[in-house]
């Protein structure tokens, strides 16, 4: 009888998980388990089997849950979405249970480094172009740095030194603009309003940066053992439906390879670049996770990056990973049926 396909378990994760599960399940090469803390997670129905994860749970208890589930279901590979440093540090325990670990980086410290943008910028400064940046902790220091950078570059912006999804990012302006505010603008903040918010408060570490007015690039990359296998460089064109195109940029590809090597990337990750006023791309951040734009990269390149990630870890021949750039795509809303799953305890499971 032919051997059963390897079992791959996708734990709780963000939006591109549906895309990755579909690629794995449709290939016929893997049996897919998916889990989440909510039975309403849209991607559960795309897997062959679904599980509900316990919540809330402390890291040691979560690791125990993972190891127990791996043994119970004969999981051959774990594609983790949460507690990544914890699981990266438990690689040997998972290997003893017969399970490969698929996470963006083999190095547990890389996740913290990507979160701490001030330390991250300092580490890669001089090797990859970065925005001119100041780390501040008070309103007085923030205002002084912002006005200095605005005088040099025309405008300046702020964001928390730690954070995701661009939360807290604002471009500083001299005056409040009522029309902009009523129009839902969440990108601009006047110095006067910033002073009322920040002055006299204990601030978290804040970065004050030159504003980058040029084209934005998002690089979806696949690495194995610190080696960049392939990447899709998406240029954001704006317009209707988040219009994007794939471009060929040797500098961006070289910088992404450097990041993969230095951060010991071992799966899917994302790097964000934006051009300054002179057209030089500067690195904004690295996300040690698959990006929400992963389906766009697949559409632009024809590369099933989620499936390739699995194949790389199982030693499959990946074939030709090159593609011709130039295609343009936009996004459209997809409506996903949520399965009418029964009410279960955190240890329950079901067939998708």
From TrEMBL:
<dbReference type="InterPro" id="IPR052032">
    <property type="entry name" value="ATP-dep_AA_Ligase"/>
</dbReference>
<protein>
    <recommendedName>
        <fullName>Carbamoyl phosphate synthase ATP-binding domain-containing protein</fullName>
    </recommendedName>
</protein>
<feature type="domain" description="Carbamoyl phosphate synthase ATP-binding">
    <location>
        <begin position="283"/>
        <end position="290"/>
    </location>
</feature>
<keyword id="KW-0436">Ligase</keyword>
<dbReference type="InterPro" id="IPR005479">
    <property type="entry name" value="CPAse_ATP-bd"/>
</dbReference>
<dbReference type="Pfam" id="PF15632">
    <property type="entry name" value="ATPgrasp_Ter"/>
</dbReference>
<keyword id="KW-0547">Nucleotide-binding</keyword>
<dbReference type="InterPro" id="IPR011226">
    <property type="entry name" value="ATP-grasp_fam"/>
</dbReference>
<dbReference type="GO" id="GO:0005524">
    <property type="term" value="F:ATP binding"/>
</dbReference>
<keyword id="KW-0067">ATP-binding</keyword>
<dbReference type="GO" id="GO:0016874">
    <property type="term" value="F:ligase activity"/>
</dbReference>
